[in-house]
């Protein structure tokens, strides 16, 4: 779906009122406004809305509660909390939003209008926002629609979002922005030395593939690598039914990097962009890879398989090796990789790993400014020994269960040896309960922070 601001010339003035400023604001209004607000119990609570009629009975002014400092600290996109409850119409923010929050709150309004209606008709958000004068409308719309792409891809079930469908989505994005794209699939993966991508995906009817998209001719070289496991049964280490239920979202890393790529291209950033997506299904069949198999990766490192359900790091490893060969200025991988990350930080934070202090500082600053929370995790060197099983170079699933997200990140880092900057995100990609601007379902994480921070992260 397309998310955009209203272009109406006439719009209903909207005042955003915090709890601590509500009485002061009301004291400056006429008797009719004070009486109407008192009758409807308007106190400025977060998400509370009220429309005040004009002389003809139509909405002449509207108020949205902005809560208190304490309630705002417990969430984000506060304007969106009330926008969904406004009556149909076009609205213009008249007062109450700090200037430095206008862009973020306007984005939240657009994101609140997102609906996934691919399989059934549903309701639409009635209230439309006229973009505030101090906000770059085209940039905010570009970011909102990139986020909508990520959500759509994750929300689509695996029956309609297998490796060929993910390829088609990437091709459509490349066509839209004039990017170059190539795909290596099936047996050609072995011929072109992507053995682990082939091994993980060979048991599925829909062939595994590596999607390679490039855009831009100027600026720093940045390569994005996204995990595209379109469905994960766990392989021969079969997941229980309860754990398999959300595995359509196991391509959330691929969805995220495609959304981030869309942000970069739509906003015209001066970047030489490359996007690599290993797209597979981890299925069960007579030719599925087995526990105790030892695989040789594109990098030449051997990997002992101690759990076929730790397949994401295998396909990412071959893609990261290819990314590293291209000598980019930075490689960023994004993946719904470990349950350990969810245990550590929950579903709302996007944990990331990097050894680059400049990149980390730039990302943290950007994340705060765009309401896209991230949390730095350590590449803890003493844990390196846990991913070295002795019989091969690496172990894909170290025993013990401790520090699962960290050991997975350390595993991936072994495949980036030339690029000076590497950052890995172990995201969830799913909103488990509805929140302002984030309905239950697929969600982008870390991408808005990244698109704002990219140039600062590499010092350009």
From TrEMBL:
Q: Which InterPro entries match?
A: Leucine_aapep/pepB, Macro_dom-like, Peptidase_M17_C, Peptidase_M17_N_1
Database matches in PROSITE patterns: CYTOSOL_AP
User: Keyword set for this entry?
Assistant: Aminopeptidase, Hydrolase, Manganese, Protease
Domain Cytosol aminopeptidase: from-to ranges: 307-314
Q: Name one GO biological process term.
A: proteolysis
> Per the record, GO CC terms?
cytoplasm
State a single Gene Ontology molecular function. manganese ion binding
> What domain of life does the native source organism fall in?
Bacteria
The EC number(s) this enzyme carries? 3.4.11.1
Q: Which family does it belong to?
A: Belongs to the peptidase M17 family.
* Database matches in PANTHER family: LEUCINE AMINOPEPTIDASE-RELATED, PEPTIDASE B
Q: What is this protein called?
A: Putative cytosol aminopeptidase
Question: Which gene is this protein's source?
Answer: pepA_2
């Amino acid at each position: 779906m397309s998310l955009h601001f209203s272009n109406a010339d006439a719009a209903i003035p909207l005042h955003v009122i915090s709890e601590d400023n509500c009485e002061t604001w009301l004291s400056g209004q006429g008797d009719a406004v004070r009486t109407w607000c008192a009758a409807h119990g308007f106190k400025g609570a977060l998400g509370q809305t009220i429309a005040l009629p004009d002389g003809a009975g139509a909405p002449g002014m509207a108020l949205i509660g902005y809560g208190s400092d304490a309630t705002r600290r417990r969430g984000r996109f506060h304007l969106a909390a009330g926008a969904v409850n406004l009556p149909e119409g076009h609205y213009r923010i008249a007062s109450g939003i700090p200037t430095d929050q206008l862009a973020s709150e306007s984005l939240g309004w657009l994101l609140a209008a997102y609906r996934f209606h691919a399989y059934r008709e549903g309701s639409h958000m009635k209230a439309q926002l006229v973009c505030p004068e101090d906000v770059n409308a085209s940039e905010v719309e570009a970011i909102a629609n990139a986020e909508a792409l990520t959500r759509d891809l994750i929300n689509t079930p695996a029956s309609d979002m297998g490796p060929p469908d993910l390829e088609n989505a990437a091709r459509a994005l490349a066509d839209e922005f004039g990017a170059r794209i190539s795909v290596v699939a099936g047996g050609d993966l072995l011929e072109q030395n992507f053995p682990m991508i082939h091994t993980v995906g060979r048991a599925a009817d829909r062939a595994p593939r590596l999607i390679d998209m490039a855009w831009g001719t100027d600026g720093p070289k940045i390569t994005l690598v996204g995990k595209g496991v379109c469905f994960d049964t766990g392989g021969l280490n079969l997941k229980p039914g309860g754990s398999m239920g959300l595995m359509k979202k196991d391509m959330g890393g691929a969805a995220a990097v495609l959304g981030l790529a869309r942000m970069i291209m739509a906003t015209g950033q001066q970047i030489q962009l490359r996007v690599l997506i290993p797209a597979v299904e981890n299925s069960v069949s007579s030719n599925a890879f087995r526990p105790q198999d030892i695989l040789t990766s594109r990098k030449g490192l051997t990997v002992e398989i101690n759990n076929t359900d730790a397949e994401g790091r295998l396909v990412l490893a071959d893609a990261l090796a290819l990314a590293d060969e291209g000598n980019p200025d930075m490689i960023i991988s994004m993946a719904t990789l470990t349950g350990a990350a969810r245990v550590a930080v929950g579903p709302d934070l996007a944990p990331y790993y990097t050894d680059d202090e400049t990149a980390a500082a730039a990302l943290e600053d950007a994340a705060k400014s765009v309401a896209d929370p991230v949390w730095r995790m350590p590449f803890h060197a003493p844990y390196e020994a846990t991913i070295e099983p002795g019989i091969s170079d690496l172990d894909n699933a170290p025993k013990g269960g401790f520090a699962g997200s960290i050991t997975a990140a350390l595993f991936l880092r072994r495949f980036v040896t030339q690029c000076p900057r590497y950052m890995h995100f172990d995201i969830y990609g799913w909103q488990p309960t509805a929140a302002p601007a984030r309905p239950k379902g697929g969600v982008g994480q870390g991408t808005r922070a990244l698109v704002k921070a990219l140039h600062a992260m590499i010092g350009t």
